[in-house]
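Input for the complex:
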Amino acid sequence: MPNLNEQLRRRHLGQSAEVQAAYEAMVGELARGGFIDQVLAVGDHFPDMALPTAEGEMARLAEWWRRGPLVVTFFRGEWCPYCRLVLAALEAALPDIEALGASLIAVTPETGGRALAAKRRRGNRYEILSDVDCGLGLGCGVVFQAPVAYRALLRRFGHDLAERHGNDAWFLPVPATFILDREGVVRWRFAEADPTRRAEPADILAALRGLAAPAGG
Amino acid sequence: MELHQVRYFAALCQTLNFTRAAEACNVTQPALTRAIQRLEHELGGPLLYRERNLTQLTELGRVMRPHLEAMLEAAEAARQAARAQAGSEPASIRVGLGPAIAASHVAGAMRGLVRLYPDLSVHFEEGGTAALVEAMLSDMLDCALLAEDAALPERLNRWKLAEEACTVVLPADHALASRQGLTADDLAGETLLFGERCGGFAHRLQALCGERFGRRQCGGSWVQMLDLVRAGLGLALLPDGLDIAGHLATRPLLEPRLTRTVVLALVAGRRHGAAVANLVKLCRARAPGPAPA
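Predicted:
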């Protein structure tokens, strides 16, 4: 099985020229604006927040990171073909993540039971949180507003984010994955403007191993 | 977007004054100005007109304001949810229930909320739609469960909680109880109970099918209507979201199919307490549908 980013690349090459152009325009705009500089960086404290789980409980992030390293990944939603590949790749990597004493949660702005549906569709064991109105995403600096042309494209494909998010702001997270230590401090980060590029599970595992290794002297 | 940029913008919306907004946010005015400029750059245009004596929102600023404020409120609610603990300020929630709408639509979300606020107290108030809307606007209620209706004012934000279908309620020993489902033809000649606070299905059926049914007026709520059904005074047409028990049978009305949408409604643009904001999040995160048993 090719690695995740190779799968994503192949998936993207299969898209129409129109879709590829829309992605290029959106990514270019974010990159020019220096968007990624705003994202929470290594050394920053992750926001101590609580969000609804897929099962409708309230989960406090700090309760997770106090137990051991926590991997938090933002994804756009089950409608996004790249996110579906990411969720599957993370599920495959979960035993290795857990073997390193770490846990994993995924965060989506989707509402209306879609976090639970995403979890059940492929039998994911890790938790998926519903970041209603993108409050956590804002705290992490990962939220942007989808450009008008891209919104029109998504609508044509039947992806009405206003309906899926329960608001018509059309805010989305950029691909971002954070590894937090027991204090909730970001120890490793992946952030990209391009939705077709994601944190590679092998890199996440390597970073977790680095955290677990005793400090060299 | 960054949290502080959005916070500064929200303060500017309130004060329409850079100096006062900077004071309110506890930053210098140049720092606030720079943050707003970055936000404007990202959103693709000016959010405010800056004139000598007058600061005003631009069209883009007006469009973005509710979205940015909602995101900021979500962040604050998530932060407060993480800090809530037993013994802290007791949280209370006041929820309006529209005609024949069961509290079970929010009970599951409240179970999630009680984990954050173990001392949560809940106050329900049943009433007509107009009265509940008025109570929300005058801040006597935090939110309400209402039937989606064109008459709901624009000032209310609303999210779908459930789609309910009409069910026929009849005595368990009624001849029609032997059927799996019923049609308007089956009900011809039967007496139907009409109430103003019972979901309106009887009125809708009559409007569609004409005067084919006996009609008995029944004031009060759906609970009293059930007592009349038990006593054999007529059949009731009620939403299937209600928990109906006690020597009564319920059969779906298959033809015509009548449905209604139950929404959670809140006054838009108002700052809600953290308990209310988190209840709304829990409701919105869930799949709409019938309330779980």
